[in-house]
Write a structure and sequence with these properties.
Extracellular Endonuclease, Chain A, nine-stranded mixed β-sheet, 18% helix
Length: 294
């Protein structure tokens, strides 16, 4: 008797998988400020996808939810990842194979079916990356993860985009490192102010070019966080926005902007954003820490 494997089984055999759940965000609401995901008319409302092109993924690793992702199956890149920052990951960067998400693939009885809805190792072959001067860029960076397992969970193709190499290792990396300092110093868990807590969203705006004629290369990347600022007893936010482009000099910085300005930019460059955080978490932190070159 011939044994025919489905595409999802083939995917599991082809490369490791993170056993996540393609469900609405109510299953992992802890990663969103006030338990509410962003409101994006026609795409994401009431924590549910409004368009089958976009998948809401509760990212699970070692039987525990680690973060949430809105994923664009047409462009094969995440729109954003949402997570909680509670402390810096002090362990070394994990070295493991990039993981895939079997639930994103349609069932099939044909062997050898290409992975329709997500990137794979084959898309990120060296010649393709060299041609576009890109590499794999995290949305939820492993340096923001609270523990080794959470850091490992970020190494999934549903959490990365093709990012310009000099940008990824340059100003974007410096911003990721400096926001660790900002959030660690100013953001507190309102219920226990001895603990650090910030709700973070990091995303990408699709561009016009593709990697391997399949995976969209974003034109812009953005990050914002909302947290309780104990020194003013108020909820505060801060945001960042930058083009995904080659950096010719090594001291490029990404200036912080207000949440409202980020939403304006997203509405101009992508689609109308009603709100990223419930009630817009509007009071800005007004912290200006230079993005130092290491």
């Amino acid at each position: 008797m011939m044994f025919i494997m489905s595409a999802s089984v083939l995917l599991l055999l082809a490369f490791p998988s993170v056993i996540s759940e393609v469900v609405d965000f109510s299953e992992c609401s802890e990663f969103f400020y006030k338990g509410q995901s962003p409101v994006i008319p026609g795409i994401l409302e009431n924590s549910r996808s409004q368009d089958n092109r976009y998948k809401t993924i509760c990212q699970k690793y070692t039987n525990k939810y680690r973060f949430g992702t809105l994923y664009d199956t047409t462009n094969r890149i995440p729109v954003f990842s949402a997570y909680k920052f509670t402390s810096e990951n002090t362990t070394k960067r994990p070295h493991l194979k990039w993981m895939g998400e079997p639930q994103l693939e349609p069932p099939s009885d044909e062997m050898g079916v290409p992975y329709e809805n997500q990137a794979t190792d084959d898309d990120y072959v060296q010649t393709e990356m060299q041609k576009h001067t890109v590499n794999r860029g995290h949305l939820f960076p492993c340096c923001h993860a609270v523990d080794p397992d959470t850091a490992r969970s970020t190494f999934t193709y549903t959490n990365i985009v093709p990012q310009k190499i000099s940008f990824n290792s340059g100003s974007w990396n410096r911003m990721e490192r400096e926001t660790i300092k900002v959030m660690s110093e100013h953001c507190r868990d309102k219920m226990d102010q001895n603990n650090v807590l910030a709700h973070v969203l990091t995303g990408a705006v699709h561009g016009i070019n593709k990697l391997n004629e399949r995976v969209n290369i974003p034109s812009f990347m953005w990050m914002t966080f909302c947290c309780y600022k104990s020194s003013t007893s108020s909820w505060s936010s801060q945001a960042y926005w930058a083009p995904n482009q080659d950096e010719k000099i090594n001291n490029v910085t990404i200036a912080e902007i207000r949440l409202e300005r980020l939403q304006e930019l997203l509405s101009t460059e992508w689609v109308n954003i009603t709100q990223l955080f419930t009630n817009n978490c509007t009071e800005n932190l007004n912290i200006s820490i230079p993005l130092k070159v290491d």
